[in-house]
Structures are given as structure tokens and as C-alpha cells.
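Design a sequence for this backbone.
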């Protein structure tokens, strides 16, 4: 059954000496993503599937950026571009 939503977490801890991020997660979505980008070590499993993992990420694998907020006009223009590209296929 894994962890309840209230119990799920992902933590990233940066080690400035090594320049590496230590990651722990029991969030299924994050476990799937981590599996694709780094070697993970299963901390806990259930029915042969990992439900808690640990791993290491390089500094370049983690980014922090400001969330982009679109205006209504930008959303409309993007929707029009998408519609145009879909119709041209």
C-alpha cells in the first residue's frame, strides 16, 4: 500500500564539499523520475516495487527557478500557436 499522501516526502540535501545532492523519496512520481536519471538504492519495498529510495544527484541535475506566470494574453497566443501547429499536420 505504500505511504499515505500525508506521509509522502522528498528531501534534497546539498553537500557543499562534494557538490552533490543527497536525495530521499517515498513519493511514487519522484521515485519514477529518479530511477530514470540516477542510480537509486531501495530503502523499502513492497511487492517487489520500491516505495522509499535514496540516491545522489549532481549539482547540475537540480535546478531552482522562478515559476513563470502567464498573462491571459500570453495564454491566448500560446493556445493559438498550438492550434495552428496541430492543424498544419
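Sequence:
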Amino acid at each position: 500500500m505504500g505511504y499515505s499522501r500525508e506521509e509522502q516526502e522528498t528531501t534534497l540535501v546539498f553537500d557543499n564539499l562534494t557538490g552533490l545532492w543527497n536525495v530521499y523519496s517515498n513519493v511514487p512520481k519522484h521515485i519514477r523520475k529518479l530511477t530514470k536519471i540516477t542510480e537509486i538504492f531501495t530503502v523499502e519495498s513492497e511487492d517487489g516495487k520500491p516505495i522509499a529510495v535514496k540516491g545522489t544527484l549532481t549539482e547540475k541535475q537540480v535546478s531552482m527557478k522562478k515559476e513563470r506566470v502567464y498573462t491571459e494574453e500570453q495564454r491566448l497566443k500560446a493556445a493559438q500557436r498550438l492550434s495552428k501547429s496541430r492543424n498544419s499536420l
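The chain has a mean pLDDT of 95.
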